[in-house]
Design brief:
Length: about 60
């Protein structure tokens, strides 16, 4: 198994899919995405959102 994974990684990197200059950018994007999802989750718990039965929209209010 480990050998297949290494061969696959070598095959992908030989295609140029791994760009060393973008590794740090990818890490920052990953952290920013996690931060955004966490913030949205907290916001969703603090502000009620109701799905409208008539128009299938989500209303951010206490009464739909």
């Amino acid at each position: 198994r480990g050998r297949r994974r290494r061969e696959k990684h070598v095959r992908h990197s030989s295609l140029g899919l791994l760009v060393p200059e973008l590794i740090e950018v990818a890490h920052r994007v990953y952290v920013a995405r996690n931060s955004l999802v966490s913030g949205l989750s907290q916001l969703a718990r603090a502000i009620p959102g109701l799905r409208c039965e008539l128009c299938n929209e989500v209303h951010i209010v206490y009464v739909g």
